[in-house]
Design brief:
Blueprint: H1 2-36, H2 40-44, E1 48-57, E2 60-69, E3 73-80, E4 83-89, E5 94-98, E6 103-108, H3 111-120, E7 136-145, E8 148-156, E9 162-168, E10 174-183, E11 186-200, E12 203-213, E13 216-227, H4 242-245, E14 252-262, E15 265-280, E16 283-292, E17 294-305, E18 310-317, E19 322-331, E20 334-338, E21 354-360, E22 366-374, E23 382-391
Antiparallel strand pairs: 1-2, 1-13, 2-3, 3-4, 4-5, 5-6, 7-8, 8-9, 9-10, 10-11, 11-12, 12-13, 14-15, 14-23, 15-16, 16-17, 17-18, 18-19, 19-20, 20-21, 21-22, 22-23
């Protein structure tokens, strides 16, 4: 038993020594890797990178532009096949415009796409401040890859994804990387090769990057890198769809004067306030309460359907506990919604309540909403309420 105990102690000591050697060697490799890229002090002076060149996908080359700005902002615009792609990180949200998936408006990326753009957004490699970024690195020894002696490093990011990096044992620059990638928003493994390293204002970057995954092959060839070019942060923000941009002026805090049809005609019956804001990137939502004999609480949503090419409006009134759906479009400068074409299976067409909402006179500081009803299935409309919105300063 004593002999076995001694063997265990010796084995544990050897493991500790080996671990310390590996840790020391890892630190030395990473330090030389950072120095090979120009050194940490030179990289600290870099606030933004504006990168242009050619991108090749589906055997077609086209121009691309990538902008990176500290602390972690990123935007890349390129062409893939017949589609223009935009990928962006604004510091909190990864978003993309990718018409190749039949979605031609901005959307939030899924986890696979997000991981791809996390890698693309690196100023250089993920080994700069990797511990500060929540990553872990393990040294896995030396190998020979395609005739090149390399150091193999296993990187585990904060999100749990693993990447295997192969650093050239002679230059300490990256030679190859393997990781999870995304192809049409689906995750799959890929490998990336780096070449043609050049100096730009004392920092070193690879001007040739080639990625292979599945049967795909992508080549990025950098032609120019501009250091610390002025970049406005607004370019990283997720834009609205073209159609929702037309009603963006509805967003805000409003004072509202309410008129209603009475026996003496349209009369002012109440004044209130309203908040209209974006509940989703392309979803405007209003919450408003006012009195028209009874107290009315309304929750209204506006969005746009790219399928029907119509604006959609959902209206919930807690007075009736009913949800109404209307659709419409612009008629000149007036956005008109009605429910003539909306039919639920449980509703008798003869007893259907026909409603129309018109939003007109839209400016930066005011607009008018008219609410009408119809007794002849939408052939003619009678305005029952008018709500005058004025923006609160």
């Amino acid at each position: 038993m004593k002999t076995l105990f001694k063997i265990q102690i010796i084995f544990a000591a050897l493991l500790l020594v080996t671990s310390n050697i590996n840790a020391g060697e890892l630190e030395d490799i990473i330090a030389k890797h950072i120095k090979a890229h120009g050194g940490i002090e030179n990289w600290k002076n870099v606030e933004s990178l504006t990168i242009t060149g050619s991108f090749t996908g589906f055997s077609v080359s086209s121009e691309f532009t990538t902008i990176k700005k500290r602390p972690n902002l990123f935007k890349s615009e390129y062409r893939l096949g017949e589609f223009d792609i935009t990928e962006t990180y604004n510091g909190s949200t990864y978003w993309i415009i990718d018409p190749s998936l039949d979605i031609d408006f901005p959307r939030i990326m899924n986890s696979a796409e997000e991981n791809v753009n996390l890698q693309k957004a690196e100023f250089c490699t993920p080994f700069f401040d990797y511990e500060k970024n929540g990553s872990k690195v393990e040294y896995q020894g030396e190998e020979v890859v395609e005739g090149v002696k390399v150091y193999k490093l296993q990187l585990t990011r904060k999100n749990g994804n693993n990447e295997t990096w192969y650093l050239n044992a002679k230059t300490y620059l990256e030679f190859k990387m393997e990781s999870v990638w995304a192809d049409y928003a689906s995750p799959l493994r890929q490998e990336t090769f780096f070449d043609d390293f050049r100096e730009v204002d004392k920092i070193i970057l690879p001007f040739y990057i080639e990625r292979s995954f599945s049967i795909r092959n992508r080549i990025t060839e950098i032609e120019e890198v501009k250091i610390n070019k002025t970049v406005d942060n607004y370019i990283f923000e997720m834009p609205l769809s073209k159609e929702i941009s037309k009603i963006k002026n509805l967003e805000g805090n409003w004072s509202v004067i309410v008129e209603a049809l009475t026996r003496r005609g349209m009369m002012r019956i109440d004044s209130t306030s309203s908040v209209i804001n974006f509940s989703g990137n392309n979803l405007l939502q209003e919450k408003i309460t006012y009195e028209n004999y009874f107290k009315v609480n309304k929750l209204i949503n506006w969005t746009y359907s790219s399928d029907s090419k119509n604006y959609r409006m959902s209206l919930y009134s807690d007075l009736t506990s009913k949800l109404y759906v209307l659709e419409g479009n612009f008629k000149n400068d007036t956005l008109v919604f009605d429910n003539k074409g909306i039919q639920f299976d449980t509703i008798d067409k003869n007893n259907k309540k026909y409603q129309q909402y018109s939003i007109t006179n839209i400016t930066d500081d005011s607009f008018l909403m008219e609410i009408a009803s119809s007794q002849d299935k939408g052939e003619t409309w009678r305005v029952r309420e008018k709500l005058y919105y004025s923006r609160l300063k």
